[in-house]
Design a protein that fits this description.
single chain; 9-stranded antiparallel beta sheet; Beta-galactosidase, Chain A, domain 5; 21 strands; 5-stranded antiparallel beta sheet; mainly beta
């Protein structure tokens, strides 16, 4: 593996680090308090920080899909995360842009000509994460895209995981899609909120894998400590799906804005028919941004 370079963004409030490989956000430090908000990737639990998911989210049935009847294979969450071919395109004090373009190797697994850019934009106490897909092909291209940022919980000494909760900007009836043992979306669901807006964290919350919310009406979620108040906010108005996840008993929580979802158990595996897939016409540009705001 290539040496990992940590690219920095900094202002008077925050210091942000992004890894060169996979353009992975790995650090958000409050310069006034020295607190690190991002999970530091302890491999005893989960070795990542905030992988970018492209061109699929979650698992494909048997890691397989079809385009025009031809069989292709992609791993869970696609090929952008941990990808050494990602290049730094622009670096300013408050703005970083990373890029990955199609290659002969990529075309063997994903038969579309594209450029995918991820921008990190630091504004005061907020970090915008912008995803842009450029269709360089002569035909429509199909893709999913999403984030997977993991935040330290608890953040302060003397607190426990159970002292924290996730608070939406509105009360909702909210059900999670239930994953099969193969990581596919089953026909089962479980109620998580019943005219409520808070999910209380507990170590066994993710024993059955991620909570997955489809067409979620709320587009704003706070991570809150019962003792220390609001920690941060994730705003995701450009995204239709939301995942919440952690390894059981791990001291972090992932808040994951998605435009796409894992395969359903009854999928026909045709990418064009995949639920949650995005279609982009030739010469068009797709854009979706989520924002992390430190309290």
């Amino acid at each position: 593996m290539k040496n990992v370079v940590i690219h920095k963004l900094e202002n008077e409030f925050l210091s942000v680090g992004i890894k060169s490989i996979g353009a992975e956000l790995c650090s958000i430090v409050n310069k006034l308090t020295g607190k690190e908000y991002m999970w530091q990737g302890d491999p005893a639990f989960w070795a990542s920080h905030a992988p970018i998911l492209f061109p699929i989210i979650g698992a494909l049935k048997n890691d397989t899909y079809f385009v025009e009847g031809k069989e292709y294979h992609l791993p869970k969450h696609g090929f952008f995360r941990n990808n050494e071919a990602v290049v730094l395109k622009r670096h300013e004090n408050d703005h970083l842009v990373f890029s990955l373009k199609f290659s002969e190797e990529i075309l063997e697994a994903y038969p579309f000509k594209f450029e995918f850019e991820v921008s990190f934009i630091l504004k005061g106490k907020s970090l915008e994460v912008k995803h842009e897909v450029f269709n360089l092909d002569e035909e429509p291209i199909y893709f999913s895209v999403g984030g997977h940022p993991a935040f330290n919980v608890p953040l302060f000494p003397g607190e426990t995981y159970e002292d924290y909760y996730l608070e939406f900007d509105q009360k909702m009836e909210l059900k999670t899609a239930v994953l099969s043992k193969d990581g596919l979306i089953s026909n089962k669901s479980e109620t998580i909120l019943n005219d409520e807006n808070k999910i209380h964290l507990r170590k066994d919350l993710f024993n059955n894998d991620a909570l997955i919310f489809v067409a979620i009406p709320s587009k704003n979620i706070n991570l809150v400590s019962e003792h220390s108040g609001k920690i941060l906010t994730v705003e995701y108005s450009d995204f239709e799906y939301l995942g919440i996840w952690a390894k059981p008993n791990a001291p972090y929580v992932c808040i994951e804005p998605w435009l796409g979802i894992a395969d359903f158990e009854d999928t026909d595996q045709d990418l064009k028919n995949k639920k949650g897939i995005n279609k982009l016409m030739p010469s068009q540009i797709f854009s979706a941004t989520y924002t992390i705001l430190i309290a």
